[in-house]
Amino acid sequence: MGVVSVESTELFVGSVEAPLQVVRVSWEAVGAARVHVEGERVATPSPVEVSAAGHVGVEVAVDTRGAAPGTRLPARVVIDGLGETAFELVVAEPGWTMHMVSHFHYDPVWWNTQAAYTTAWDELDFPGSHRGARQLAGFDLVRAHLDLALAEPDYRFVLAEVDYLKPYWDTYPQDREVLRRLLAEGRVEVMGGAYNEPNTNLTDPETTIRNFVHGMGFQRDVFGGRPDTAWQLDAFGHDPAFPGFAADAGLTTSSWARGPFHQWGPMEKTPSGKGDPTRMQFPSEFEWISPSGKGLLTAYMTDHYGSGWSLDSAPTLEVAGEAAYQEFLELKKVTTAKHVLLPVGGDYTPPNKWITDLHKDWANRYVWPRFVCSLPRDFFAAVRAELAARDEEPTPQTRDMNPIYTGKDVSYIDTKQAQRAAEAALLEAEPFAAFATILAGSDYPDAALAKAWVQLAYGAHHDAITGSESDQVYLDLLTSWRDAHDLATGVRDSALTVLSGLVSLPDGTGKPVVVWNPLNHERTDTVTVRLIEPVTGATVTDDAGAELPVLVENGTVTFLAEGVPPLGWKVFRLAESARDDQGWTAVDGETAASDRFRVTVDADQGGCVRSLVELHSAHELLTSGAVGNELALYEEYHDHPTFGEGPWHLLPKGPVRTSSEHQAEVTVERSPVGERIIVEGQVGTVRYTQTIALWHGVDRVDCTTTVDEFSGQDQLLRVRWPCAVPGALPVSEVGNAVVGRGFGLIDVDSARHPWTLDNPAHTWFGLSAAASLRLADGALRPIGVAEIIVPTEAEAAPLARELAVALARSGVTSTVSSAAGARYGDLGVDSNLPDVRITLGGPEVNAFTAEVVERSGVSGDGVYWVPPEKPLPEVWRPSADLRDARTLGVLVVPTAHIQSIVDDLADHVIEVGAGSPGQDEYAGRSVALLNRGLPGFAVDSAGTLHASLLRSCTGWPSGVWIDPPRRTVPDGSNFQLQHWTHEFRYAVAAGDGDWRGAGIAENSAEFSRPLHAVITVDGGTRGLPARGSLLRADPADRVRLAAVKAAGNPLTRGSAAQADPRECLAVRVVAPTGAPAAATLESDVVVLSDLTAANLLEEPGAPVSGPIEVAGCDAVTVLARPSAGWSTVDGAVLGPEAEPVQPLYAKYWLHNRGPAPLGGLPLAVHVDPTRAEAGEPLTVTVASDATDVDLHGYVRLGLPGGWTAEPAELPFGLPPGGHLTSEVTVTAPEGAEPGRYPVRVRVEPTGDALPVSWRQVVEDVAVVTVGASIEQDKLIRLSAEPEPVRLARGARGRLAVRVASTANAPVTLEAALVSPWGTWEFTGPRLVGAELPAKGEVELGFDVVVPPWAAPGRWWALVRVAGAGRLLYSPTVPLEVTA
């Protein structure tokens, strides 16, 4: 009869009470026909009547008479008059709902600029750009979604990033009421709770916390939303601490697209078709748990965050509905409940054109599944309700959601160095500023600190810190990192100067030097004093009068400061002497040593280290026959051969050149404080200098690799140290924890093996043990990444959650899967690999246990270990597949013994007592590579530690430029190619025991956060002792101070309240070892009282009586009132309370400046239009973001000479969140010269009670044209370009541009000096401003002052000039420091 197909569907019609399953039938019809389906348990209540010819498809509603879902029923399709066809009807399950969540993913910067992405994309677009056909700028996106919501009552959508929310909120305050109404009606949901979508695996954990502080402050307190879901759509992996931080910030759920599986997920499209989601080892909804034990109900976007956007390309509603249905069929395979989340949106996308029609049409056609416009809040509520009805909990997952996009850890490496340096400076600036306020009466620089943090939050965005941005965006981002860095170091240095002036000085000669320790434990380390006037010799004495050995070089004096108290100080004296023997002295040989280590290099092997001996144990740390500190230069593809993504991935071709292949120049030098080796050599396109310093009394080997010259492209530079530790596994520091990481797959051709498994580390990585199994004869077998296998999915939470948390606190992340489910360990889908399996339940209840026991022949009565068939290094291979039950060792844990294993993990060792490790027994040592802003690492299975130093990539968006003319490095190369001097600092540390026993974390903290020396003067009021602690947390071996600051963060939430540490301190205590701690706070200068628990937003909770209980890997915030027994009134300014260029430009995003100006811009003014004809009225809007005070002031117009305005000024008084709109008429004088006239509309707040940072004048500019129109982009132009700067140490120079105007009225200019990390110390200031006269010129200049201690190098610099929304980028010029 020509039946083409019969399909059992998941569709239902009828009613909720009596649903009928739809069977789809198609055939070649020849006229009228009647169609029904029948069978023993199948009936058709209403046959379908058809009258047609040709190909016909119908949906037949079938009653399956209560058959259970999944049942296969024999059935027949009967077409009267034509015959019948037998088929098997698969009974579907009614009750499903697909939640279509309309969203747009917004990157504030990426390949295009902040100005374009916020408002100016149409204006700045260019032929051949990567802009999609329907992509819109931020303001247009908000407007498009808002307009549809106002037109369609069924439409619902989400908003997220502060990057576009605040500019829109301020520019269109008339939309505030409607947005809040839609929020109240549940038709808009504000997502994220964070400032943006940060890449938390590349930043300090405190930066993640401040991202929430700034995000919640605006989204909740200013905007009025109720953020509940961490909306991390596109982040390139996540720090393991993230879900715990989000939970402590008040969020309960999260949703994102990248993490447990490779960048496009398990359903990634391949030449053979779309991937199978059932390769996932756990449902798409799960509890994502941090090592702290806190977690979020999470929805993983199985088919990525753009899965629903494809509906937009459907030509008809019917086609769109079918596409949605097919997506539903795939996604439902892996859901926890009968609810499917379909994200309907993509990058910068307006509302999907079919979403509301589909919402209505589907409801008219089908009872189940429901396809509804929904919000994440409703989706998660539905999932929770269903789990509760089943008396179940989501599966617990502590899985490491890394690595994703391994290139992100090293592309534009200088930005990661800048981020790390600024973070360290900020974390030191806050406590020192707080105590300078408490003890000396200084004003706490809240505005400066808040601006620095929000700049770091802005830079933490997943297309910023990751290095996936275009060249122009990279330059703009450099100005943001410099802003944060300079604000932080300025506050820190000012506060230390104030505090040093309060310290009592010991008797003696010479200048008093106060040495400050920013860490929470007492330490001994070298410290360097930088002198304004260099000396040839010096004498340093400690507080007991003992003279210390010193090193004098290039205007600095370095000595060993012993026993500097935690977050405290110790006084020394420094006097000039006539000695000239305190510098470096060259000696023969290739060996240098301290009292801790001995290093020998080989000039014939590129100066690489051929021996590194730990002296106290006489242990050789290097692998026999290998060399360390070796540079490896890899050739790379410009784009990934499969994925086509350049800067995102590491793209090795396989061949590698090493520094050991060539001879190098080696110099060994000694000084009174230590010895060093200097190596000068070349490998390929890299000319380098390496310095290895061994300081007496310091338990590490400090290394610097300087890339003096680099001319390559599509290359990766690594440094490697072969330091095999038998049995050890890779570990790395992450947010407030240390976790195991799998071996890297280093020297591969990424066209054949795409995954190198490089990972990001915070400040160190190495070989050690996170946790271990103690087997026969006490042999230890470390474990790092686990799969926990439960009998059934429903048992995952009750059986595995507590164990998963205990393992995570010990550093072992885990994936919890079920015996019948997919196994973890296929590099074809999984983003990382396990090294051990833990199966819960014996063979009688767990099918996986039964398989392992049967195949291995190993069994036991209690907990027992089944060794793998082969040692781990033998199976850990490129493109590895470790899913077989015998590939990895298996720990069998009967359910009755689970709690004993949890308890056993208190010391990070599980006592098994029997079994072979199946590989080398752990040698009980640790070795680590410490870094300063070099997160990318890999440890291969041979035990070689690799750190990524530098990457050069020509793949898109390398070289992309938006505002012409395109700028390059002076040699004509793209900035992504990194053709300038780079300095990389790292260190080697080692010790007995695991990383905890070896003190690796403390050693790394000391390397990352050096001691600070402040020269002070005798005299003055000095109430502090010669040594002491501002604050310390005990026990210091279990807890550390993560943050000490004034409590409250008022500026972030639009509050005019003062952040005053004298009233309340916020102290964050973490327990990074994984062990719980009962912490106490002590101080030598204040008494703390009224301790109160708080969340990460510093909102108070319950009083704290007794010790502060800190769970392993948790961050606990407490508030306390400090009372100083002694104080003075210094009144010193610790940080700026206004931007350096005034007035502020309201549309700051058009200048690519990053976040709102210092103070947060609580009062904004906007004029519309900004380009007007003479006589055209101007609409002026003033808006307040204040939440707790009225704002008063005046709007005044800066008019061209002879012009008038009506009204001439506008007084205003705005309640919290209020706004005012008024029309202004501007009139040109009779006979005004044709041209363009900038009219500056300024808002001038009044009221001395306001924070100083809120009293800044803000202006917007309308350019009014008289007569013939002139090209807008010529308003300002460069009339003189900068000249190259080449200076010797100690010399001064200047870098300047001249700017000319074609405007007929003045324009406010702001110029930013843009130069790479490594140059900021001697160039500045970072910003200068000027008023550019009508048709005049002005010079904007910057000083270059090279200190005597500066290292030689070749860099570049340019000047970015902004005014009235226009941008100019000067050409780059060489910036060189000679020896």
Automatic annotation (TrEMBL):
Residues 410-481 form the Glycoside hydrolase family 38 central domain. The keyword Repeat does not apply. Gene3D superfamilies: Glycoside hydrolase 38, N terminal domain (3.20.110.10), Glycoside hydrolase family 38, central domain (1.20.1270.50), Golgi alpha-mannosidase II, domain 4 (2.70.98.30), Immunoglobulins (2.60.40.10). It holds the Pfam family Alpha-mann_mid. Signal peptide: none annotated. GO terms for biological process: mannose metabolic process; oligosaccharide catabolic process. Keywords: Glycosidase, Hydrolase, Metal-binding. The keyword Hydrolase applies. GO terms for molecular function: alpha-mannosidase activity; carbohydrate binding; metal ion binding. Transmembrane segments: none annotated. Belongs to the glycosyl hydrolase 38 family. This is Alpha-mannosidase.
